[in-house]
Design a protein that fits this description.
With 256 residues, the chain is an alpha/beta fold. It contains eleven helices and eight strands. The protein has an eight-stranded mixed beta sheet, sandwiched between helices. Helix 4 packs parallel to helix 5 and helix 4 crosses helix 10. The two termini are 33 Å apart.
Length: 256
């Protein structure tokens, strides 16, 4: 494996990972030399990026065009009262660097459009969709399909959350457009109008980090073809199997 090797202080920092048979030295070195692209630095992106940083992912790129607002602080744990009015990516970058100075964080205060994704995807090992916009989700998915990059997708609203993995490298894995057709845009459900249970985004965001780390380390079974849905009222999980859609306008074209 090429790239940077673990230094002495990192061996101690990541010692609890090194003790795991599923990760060990090889997996931790993969973390160190990997690049995670996190789109959204809010409720989901905060815990997801923070766990990636703590785990030792070498490069994390954060994308978000919003600023920290007082209403964000109920759930977006990367930000503090002192961050009010600052770009979310700058506030989150400070939080990640405080957690782990070994991690290189790139903060981009922009919307994740097709041109930006085309520029960033070639060097990314895994993409985490932590946004709340249907059009952006479709753009992220299309870029991941074009570049063959695994996509960890999470969402949360009110008391309900869900998470799955779309991996275009897996011939049996659907893409986001297989499940949510681009031409059938749903009515946008936003926290600003519908609310969201604060710990719910932490649960889903932490699971997104876990799935991303599994993909990087090549361990376990990723959530490809399986959508996990959490009812926060009862804390019950429901699993739904998903299949690639033969006529999908995104991954179907790619396969052809």
């Amino acid at each position: 494996m090429t790239g940077r090797s673990l230094q002495d202080d990192e061996l101690l920092r990541y010692s609890r990972h090194l003790l795991l048979d599923d990760i060990g030295f090889g997996g931790q070195t993969r973390f160190l030399n990997s690049h995670a692209l996190v789109i959204g630095a809010g409720g989901l992106g905060s815990p997801a990026a923070m766990y990636l940083a703590c785990a030792g992912v070498g490069q994390i790129t954060l994308i978000d065009d919003d600023d920290v607002d007082l209403t964000n602080l109920q759930r977006q744990i990367a930000h503090t009262t002192a961050s009010l009015g600052r770009p979310k990516v700058d506030s989150a970058q400070d939080a990640l660097e405080r957690l782990n100075p070994h991690v290189h964080v790139q903060a981009l205060r922009v919307r994740a459009d097709a041109a930006l994704l085309e520029a960033l995807l070639p060097t990314a090992d895994v993409v985490l969709d932590c946004c709340d916009n249907f059009a952006t989700r479709q753009a992220i998915n299309a870029a991941c399909v074009r570049h063959g990059k695994p996509l960890v997708s999470g969402s949360a609203i009110q008391m309900d959350g869900q998470i799955t993995v779309y991996d275009p490298r897996n011939a049996n894995s659907p893409c986001y457009a297989c499940v949510f057709a681009p031409t059938l845009a749903p009515e946008e459900a936003r926290c600003a109008t519908m609310g969201v249970f604060a710990p719910l985004v932490g649960i889903i965001g932490a699971m997104q980090a876990a799935e991303a780390l599994k993909l990087i380390a090549q361990v376990g079974e990723p959530l490809c073809g399986r959508l996990l849905m959490l009812d926060g009222r009862s804390m019950e999980w429901t699993q739904v199997r998903m299949e690639r859609k033969a006529g999908c306008t995104v991954c179907g074209k790619q396969a052809g």
